[in-house]
Amino acid sequence: MRKSYGIEPQLEHCGCVLDLYGHAGRLDEALNFINNMPMKPHAGAWGALLNASRIYKNMEIAELASRKIVEPEAKNHGTYVLLCNIYADSKLWDGVSNVRLTMKAKGVRKLPGCSVLEVDGRRRQVSFSI
User: Fold this and answer.
1) Where is the signal peptide (predicted)?
2) Single pTM value for the model
């Protein structure tokens, strides 16, 4: 970007590259990219890596990415829930239990989800919790 177009990469650009690596299953390259970013990786960058590690069932990278997200954002319930889901998908029930205990100890609660549905031409908001 710098050489060809004279554009300085921003966090959003790096997040897009990480998302592309992740969706392509190139998790090691994504991790290498995040470790060599020209700026400090933000939670969104680590989140892209966490999501990719869920898709490709890479527990080692999932645990690393979740730690990196939780360090600055200890109350980020989404990270804990995603990590729980990764453990559950791999049938690692002790991991699920440990994450839930950590959430409880830190006072982190999962917020209910919300969807808007149209029923008989009328919009209805539905809250749910998993």
Assistant:
1) none
2) 0.69
